[in-house]
Amino acid sequence: MSEIKYRIITKKPADKFSTPVDGAFGGVLPSGDISINFYTESIPMPTETIIIFDSERGKIINTEQSEDVSRTVLRETVSSISLTSTKAKEIYIWLGQLINQSEINRKEANDASNL
Questions:
Q1: What pLDDT is recorded for position 66?
Q2: Is the full-model pTM beyond 0.70?
Q3: Whole-angstrom Cα distance, residue 26 to residue 36?
Q4: Do the beta carbons of residue 44 and residue 74 sit within 8 Å?
Q5: How far, CA to CA in Å, does 110 sit from each of 80, 91, 99, 100, 101?
Q6: Domain range summary for the chain, segments of one domain joined by +
């Protein structure tokens, strides 16, 4: 058996950055590939804020938002991928291994902090 050794160089373009992800949604495309959309969740900023100012005392009396955003969640898709079921299975196995290691690390950290 002859071995072939490959060197893989990983580069991250300067315009790419990491983004926290709160969830994902997707499905199976007609081609059979799997589509995944990763998203973040936040509360939206109001489009307008009204400030009531007392000019004689030089103080802000009150602020009002022009719209009620208290029951609104902004879900923004930050990245989308599509992949074959074979690649999805490989990532599934890899993520399972990372989750197991993460849980072991967390347990060890908790045990150490309880000493």
A1: 66
A2: no
A3: 4
A4: yes
A5: 35, 28, 16, 15, 14
A6: 20-83, 84-115
